Amino acid sequence: MTRYRELAPPPRTIMTPGPVEADPRVLRAMSYPMLGQFDPAFTALMNETMEMLRALFATANGWAYPVDGTSRSGLEAALAALIEPGERVLVPIFGRFGHLLHEIALRYGAEVSVIEQEWGRVFDPQQVIEAIDRVRPAVVALVHGETSTGQLQPLREIGAACRSRGVLLVVDAVATIGGVPVETDAWQLDAVVGGTQKCLSVPPGMAPLTYNDAAERKLLARRRIERGLRTPEGGEAQAARQIADAQAGMLPRERHIRSNYLDLSQLQDYWSPARLNHHTEMTSMLYGLREGVRLALEEGLAARHARHLLHGGALAAGLEAMGLQLYGERVSRLPVVACVRIPDGIDGEAVRALLLEQFGIEIASSFGPLKGMIWRIGTMGYSCSRRNVLLTLGALEAALLRHGLRLPAGEAVQTALQYYTRSEGI
Ligand SMILES: *Cc1c(COP(=O)(O)O)cnc(C)c1O
């Protein structure tokens, strides 16, 4: 006997910028029996997943596969692969995740230049292009959809400017992939990292990414001691000897070699037909990712993007009808996260707790300068539905009334219903 009861997570409506509700078909896929990682039945699933990821990222790139770990692992793997120590990297920052890119680039020894935009806005592409011409970086690292501020950075002009100057552009599309168009090839993005637990509605635990030939050339020709260091199957002993030899003539502070786990040159060998053994693939996660991407493609990317626009629009209209103010520049709003100002005199955390405890609905708080100032309400993936939007508006209204806020009762849900009727008429 154990005093622990059987696992029974409470049912929730998750309206945050991730992790969001997983599609039940994804959860079912993850419960299927195990396959060995080199079983041809499993490697066939890996190959199909790569093919489907190319469609998802809108790319003809040879490489499109997941890194095992949450989205941050993909960002770190991409930056580690593409930054030479001492190289100049430009990071335009317009929210929390820009700071993350900055931090990672510093860890890998880049000379980082940042430009910062006031939170709640994005960069005019021209500002970024001017900074590129001033800094002359080897790499630009930029967030596409900033979930901390609910803003969407246009990338096309920046992509073209980077390409014409021979600068590699690395994009964090964690929050946008599967919910908002991400055009890897058309926008000339060199490396793009997506996320699972946001608009794809797969549990957290993988970071699908893609990169082109220019990025691959750079990651294969990395700094001196890593050059030639490829761990062949079962070749850890040989790799250890190579590292030791390479380090012998170096000062201790020069001896750092980057992550083994996140080494894209080894990971791509594992995803290549050679299947050089690296770590054990997260087999059940791969089932989930494959099903999540399959469902996205089955829905159709254009239809899926339209669904996210529709429900994000209905939510925003309902929030405004309640008398609440949306935070941030309107034209560049990220359709999958509504940032809402917490009304004066209202305890944001108490309202969130009431929503969770009484209605089983989770909305998010915020970070840094926005903490206590805004709530963030996501409409992502499987959570992005009419039912969830209407329930959330009704519940938030009730919670705010309960906390003594005077508001035009009933307007929010009616406005959202009206929004849906009008959208159907188009
Ligand atoms: C959620 C998020 C991340 C981090 O993802 P993890 O899965 O938590 O590692 C990075 N960038 C953006 C824009 C995000 O929204």
UniProtKB/TrEMBL annotation:
The keyword Cell membrane does not apply. GO terms for molecular function: alanine-glyoxylate transaminase activity; L-serine-pyruvate transaminase activity. Residues 39-218 form the Aminotransferase class V domain. Transmembrane segments: none annotated. Keywords: Aminotransferase, Pyridoxal phosphate, Transferase. Residues 1-20 are annotated as: Disordered. The modification N6-(pyridoxal phosphate)lysine is found at K198. GO terms for biological process: glycine biosynthetic process, by transamination of glyoxylate. Its cofactor is pyridoxal 5'-phosphate. Substrate binds at R376. Belongs to the class-V pyridoxal-phosphate-dependent aminotransferase family. This is Alanine--glyoxylate aminotransferase family protein. It comes from Paenibacillus sabuli.
